[in-house]
Write a structure and sequence with these properties.
It is built from 6 helices and no strands. The chain is mostly helical. The chain has one domain. The longest helix has 28 residues.
Length: about 130
């Protein structure tokens, strides 16, 4: 996929994430599917704006996700006085959860599987 295609996918994922954040109040879709999609969003966003390959992009994406989760574990929002800020809590989350790490990894696996599938489809077209 070209950078423009990644940008379109990132915008679609952003739209889905906004809908989830605004309208879904459950114990599975919002916390876990949202985290899976967040990894996919960051990955496609990186691929849209930077000329980097799959492995560097997914590595950077997971580093960002893990850094956010570490910030949650360290209560960074509380230390910055932002724990009452709804936007900050929505973007950065409120509490550490090992299941979030699993959701991030699942998102990375899905991204890699899609990239592999697209790569194989392209090579068969040639």
């Amino acid at each position: 996929m070209g950078r423009r295609s990644y940008a379109v996918v990132a915008l679609v994922l952003l739209g889905i994430e906004v809908v989830i954040a605004l309208f879904v109040r459950d114990a599975f879709i919002r916390p876990y599917v949202g985290d899976v999609l967040a990894v996919m969003l960051v990955y496609t966003g990186l691929r849209a704006v930077a000329p980097i390959g799959t492995i560097p992009a997914i590595t950077a994406t997971l580093a960002i996700a893990f850094a956010i989760e570490a910030a949650q574990a360290l209560n960074l929002l509380g230390a910055l006085g932002l724990s009452g800020n709804a936007l900050a809590r929505t973007v950065l989350g409120g509490s550490f959860d090992w299941l979030d790490i699993g959701a991030y990894m699942a998102g990375a696996v899905i991204v890699l599987a899609i990239e592999l599938f697209i790569g194989r489809a392209r090579s068969q077209d040639k």
